[in-house]
């Protein structure tokens, strides 16, 4: 699943953590569907960290990048959320940059949270 990585300024340890979380996301059917949708559209992202980031992670529809606050914010929930934002950027007409700082951004967050809840149900075995 490292084929989703375009460039990376992550340290070796951060990159190893990123790849292990990608593999975990791929193990679950909704996560695999998300990764396959990104991969089949040849989408690749720039991965980096920024200690000054507001929040644990961020997807930029302008840079097509995924930023983590640091190695401790690299986790299943954060990565899945940012990858889902990348999916939304691909599938919303003309992308999601149009919603930056606008009321529509609340819908973008709502969709990502709903996807995450559905994925957690699969992950926990409550849905089969
Ligand atoms: Zn979000």
Automatic annotation (TrEMBL):
Q: Please identify the protein, giving its name as recorded.
A: Uncharacterized protein
- Superkingdom of the source? Bacteria
Organism phylogeny: Bacteria, Pseudomonadati, Bacteroidota, Cytophagia, Cytophagales
């Amino acid at each position: 699943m490292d084929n989703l990585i375009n460039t990376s300024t992550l340290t070796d340890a951060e990159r190893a953590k990123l790849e292990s979380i990608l593999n975990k996301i791929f193990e679950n059917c909704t996560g695999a569907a998300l990764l396959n949708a990104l991969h089949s559209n040849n989408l690749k992202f720039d991965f980096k960290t920024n200690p000054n980031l507001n929040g644990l992670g961020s997807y930029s529809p302008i840079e097509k990048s995924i930023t983590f606050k640091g190695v401790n914010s690299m986790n299943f929930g954060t990565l899945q959320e940012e990858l889902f934002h990348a999916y939304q950027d691909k599938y919303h007409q003309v992308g999601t940059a149009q919603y930056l700082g606008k009321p529509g951004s609340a819908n973008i967050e709502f969709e990502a949270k709903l996807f995450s809840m559905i994925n957690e149900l699969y992950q926990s075995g409550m849905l089969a």
